[in-house]
Queue: 2 jobs
Job 1
Amino acid sequence: MQEPWGTALRCRPLAGVARHCFSTRDLVLEDVRADAAASWPGLASTLGVELGSLVRIRQVHCADVYEPRSAGAGSMFRAYEDCPEADIAVTDNPSVALSVRAADCVPIVLADRRTGAVAAIHAGWKGTAAGAAIVAVQALTSRYGTNPDDVIAAVGPSIGPCCYEVGSELRGHFSSHADASAWFTTDPKPRLDLWRATRDQLARAGVPQDQTHVSELCTFDHPAQFHSYRRDGKNAGRLVAAIRSGPGRTL
């Protein structure tokens, strides 16, 4: 879909349940261009909320959950350093939009088609090892009465198993996951498949497999469309995944 700020990606099965988007390089979220200041207001407009109701979190590669309490919850977090520390945000308030930023890590948005509750998740390897996707589904269940059977999940662009080379020692961090052996390959070099890990964790949390939709777009492999920290290093920009409770747009 085209927005005033450029191309946005959406998941068709999720579109009728919750307004959401995954940004591309067109949305400038870092202060590297003169028009960067307009990016967050532009994203808020895309989601149909005021800027003060677009919630950001300061991501620290964990599985902690943040729940904004009011429509203006974002207004006090104008500087990224002042945002609450968490890697998962949840709400059932349709006047609030949630967002996470990524540049290879996995951005995930969830929506409960019955209650309207939503979640936004940032999951790198540390968040995946901590079971962030599972924790998010559990948070929707405990706070809003979500039945996992009603959850639709969309997984945005992130580094793929084709390009995510990791050290062999990383396996030890996933020892609590019985199915983690399937997430690693060693031919020809050790690689981690975050896409499969995310699918498996959502399934373990009770989300039906046919309701989890993975874009399978590798950020490293598509430099014209996506930022990648693994490819671009400290100069990498950020992509954003955002979601708001309530009906989305028809695609």
Job 2
Amino acid sequence: MIDRAGVSGRNSEQWYARRVKRAVADIERQLARAGTPERKRVAEWYFPTQLAVAGVAVPDLRRIARSIKVAPDEVLPLARALAKSGGFEARAVAYELLARHKTALDARTVEELGRGNDNWGLVDSFSVLVAGPAWRTGAVSDATVRKWARSRDRWWRRTALVSTVALNAKSRGGTGDVARTLAICRMLADDPEDMVVKALSWALRELAKREPAVVRAFLDERELAPRVVREVRRKLETGRKNL
């Protein structure tokens, strides 16, 4: 908790900015210590990115995120700074931090936090932890998500689809939303981009857990990528994505 007693005005802003900067540096040091060369090679292959990769395993990343002591009014400034730091894992920590504190966000801030995501790992974390919950609560509008679905950037199109997971997954606080999920799925049903095809499969498989009949009807409604049909039908028939 920040003690602002005796600090006000411009001096307060400068002091506050320095505190956030020090917090980012401390988190980056923790990530660097937790990273390994082997994990770095795997991550750079699995999540190709222009961001700096430290090579931190997911359990360690989440442990670091949980260890951060921050006042409610510090969460968003710190998350913004982490997202802008240029680090792959730092961005992931920002999303974990926002989700853990259930930080209220508006659409402009959500888009700011997602700008620059260039790999499926960060896109998926951002979508299920930040963008999807903001959409579910009404902080992000249907029109904004439809805008993402129309984007020339494949990562924003994937964000639109993966955000539907937060509408439907019980583990993410979802209660089910057929209309909004299928609206985005229809918009991207013909998208040939592999990252979008995989996200479409995920969105439909998550909805299938709640509304199997609706998803079966959607599969019969139009021609979809073979991967989507195969994975979703297998989910409907066996409860699994793969055999």
